[in-house]
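Entry:
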Amino acid sequence: NAIFGLANGGDVGAPVQGAVQGAKTVALGSLIAVNLIKSFALGSLELAFAANERGVDFNLIEPVEFAQANREAILGLDMALDDLQDSMVDVNLKLRTIMDKRNQYAALVAKGNRLQTEREIFRKRASAIVQGVRTRDAAFRIFRNEKLERYKTLFDLAAKYAFLAAQAYDYETGLLHTDNGKAFINKIINARALGVVADGQPQFAGSNTGDPGLSSALAEMKADWGVLKGRLGFNNPDTDGTTVSLRMEKHRIVPGSDGDDNWKDLLNRGRMANVLADGDVVRYCMQIDRGDDLPVPGIVLDFGTMVVNGLNLFGRPLAGGDHNFTPSTFATKIFSVGVALEGYVGMDDPSANSSTTGGSSPSDPSAPFLGSQTLAATPYVYLIPVGTDAMRSPPLGDQSVIRVWNVDDVAIPLPFNIGASDFSNKKLYQSADSLTEQLFAIRKHQAFRPVSDTSKFPSDSGQLLPSDFTNSRLIGRSIWNSKWKLVIPGHALLNDPDEGLDRFIETVKDIKLHFETISYSGH
């Protein structure tokens, strides 16, 4: 400071002042130092006191407090231990309950396992038993069904034959058109039992109550037939031979040159480029198709016949020279039929046999194939019934009604087919239809040879013997039929069928039909 004072111009007393000021300063510093020492000593004492106090607390109080705290903690633990010991009973009870539940669960599981095992064993045994029973049941059902199928098939076949027997009985006798007759046929249809059969003969059941079976109906028909054979005249029928003219009696075309043109027109109207277009021809004429897929030219003439008083056989008013049959016989049936082609050139008539008379074979011309109008020596024609048969019922009460029949001319199938024909290749009991063939196949009509004139027909018609001049295919059919067809195929006349038909139309002057018939009085 002195120096600083001097520098500023200074003060002479500045040094003294400086010294005094310095002494003050030293004294002040000493006081400060004393105070600091006091403060330090005081702090040391306080620190020592605090340390001593802490030592007292640590060495004297803390152990006591610690021991007391330990005693308190031990007391708490002891109390907790007492509580724990007191709760052990509940714990033991809970554990026992848990163990019991576990044991119960284990028992249930074991029981379930036993049930599963027992069920598995039961199912295996049941499965084995059921499988065996099922196998035996299946075998039983198979054999039973086979037996039932055989029985049903054979019963159905027997029922069909019984029904057809009733229809044949009705066709022959004409007696089942009444209400009772219809009920008799319905009884056969409704039958579900065979009935009683002894030694192959159907037996009468003794009562119509319930279902007497098929045998009862067959026995009833057989018993009635045994009486009717004599009563209706089946044992002693009337026989006749009748020849009718298509030209004069059917179409009223006069003979001679005056009617030749009309006759030729008639034949031309019946001429067909292919007779196979006629369904009746295909259905009833046997093997008329030559098998070469070519048309079959021919002539088809249709006509109907009837038995009515005042009308001729063709339904025309009865005139001089006409032929008819009497309605006093309830049925007039065909034994055989023949056809005469009058005017036919070149025919070689069949030779007469020992059972007939009046036939002779003409001498052969030297070269008949050179003739311009000559035809084949052995022509063949078909005569087929395609309409409905009609007859009267027997006039047992001196009254009769007209019965109309749609006749199915069918063939009975082979039961065993030992020749293995292709129309039947199954055993009888294996087919619901009995055979692969239609149950009753249509019996077709074969062609037969006509003659050149009516003198060749047998004159001893009452003997009903086979003849070389007639055909017996229509035996049993009624002379009364709503529609007949006479079929003359061209290939039976010449190799060139059209040429053969031309010559036929030019030369043949009349076609006559000869019927050998059987008539029953029915009373």
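The chain has a mean pLDDT of 83.
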